[in-house]
Write a structure and sequence with these properties.
This protein has 419 residues and is mostly beta strands. The protein has helices spanning 2-33, 209-213, and strands spanning 36-50, 54-57, 62-66, 83-87, 92-102, 105-114, 126-136, 140-148, 173-183, 186-193, 200-202, 205-207, 218-227, 230-241, 246-249, 252-255, 260-273, 276-286, 295-302, 309-313, 315-325, 329-342, 353-356, 360-374, 377-393, 400-418. The two termini are 34 Å apart.
Length: 419
Amino acid sequence: MHNHYVNILIFMKKILISLCCTAIFYGVHAQKSNFDYSFYGFVRGDIYYNSRSNTEVVDGLFYLYPKDRLLNVDGEDLNATPNGSFYTFATRLGLNIKGPDVGSAKTSANIESDFGGTTDINFMLRLRRAYVKLDWEKGSSLLLGQTWHPLFGEVMPDVLNLATGAPFQPFNRSPLIKYQYRKHALTYTASAIYQLVYTSVGPNGKSEKYLKDGVLPELYLGADYKNGNFLAGAGVDMISLKPRLESPYIGEIYRVNERVTAFSYDLHANYTCEKLQVSGKTILASNQTHTVMLGGYGVTKVDERTGEQEYTPFRHSSSWLNVVYGTKYKGGFFAGYTKNLGTSKSIISPDKLYGSGLNIDRLVNLSFSFRYVLPHWNFGIGYTLATAWYGETNLSDGKVINTHDVSNHRMESIFTYFF
């Protein structure tokens, strides 16, 4: 096993050396080929402590919310166990590229990676972003490749945790086609989004297959208004999935034509003034599991002959507010709130639910942070209180009843060296 880890580390070193050699070669060749390259990135370390077990990813760096009670025969909560660790695999490396014009369009590209991939070991080099972009002087731009989901948008919280406000703030990077048109203070956005790493939940767990089988990509339309230090915008998102193509039912397999379609709507705003930044977002989210939000869908009807199912998506209201003040010394406050609004149709069984956090009625997060900012350096400490109200799903409307609350206290500290 030790040799296995050593071989992995040697392989990763070879990749980094190859990247550096490639960068040097292209840097020398850039003037002849009219390309410009610039590296950027940071080394980041995260230390954290939790008072109980939590729903989380990336070995706890990407923190979401506390797990429900898990009682043993003695009535002890097995999830009421503290944990903590120290990791540096949020370290990031990126490359910006500017190339020759294509007609009247300026061209650019971005490649970005970190070590936050998930395997049977703690870290793995992964692709965060990889896209090309065309910009026209008349205000149009076209982006092709993997980057941030439009619901992540221009307004996101400035917090210590790697989750960047999730599950209250949508968090997703996906392959997409994004067209933007800028006219005076307005920017209009239209996107077609596919899935790769951040995928929807369905009968076979998390998979890109549900969107792929539905053929139609996720679609987004939005508009932003920016005037000086103030920005406000709105958007609508549609996702249409095919949960199954076949139905094993009463000893036979039938071909089925199932689909669940959901619409989500967001409003967002941001204001900056000297040392102060205030931002917020509210979303009526429906089946947004691929953006690391609470949600999903349930079965409303089953055909008596073939087992073909009909579905209804869950709706969640999710909002957050973030206030940051300071330059060298920065204090921050973040508040997030999510409420399960249920479904528009009744559900036939609690065993026919597909999603994440569907047994949570509401979720609250309060975070406080302090950062010491120097040129190329950032040190921060923070405290988070997160409370989730768990209960039972009311099949008539999908809402959660008979709730009890569970809380987690989280302390974290980070250091970042930018280059």
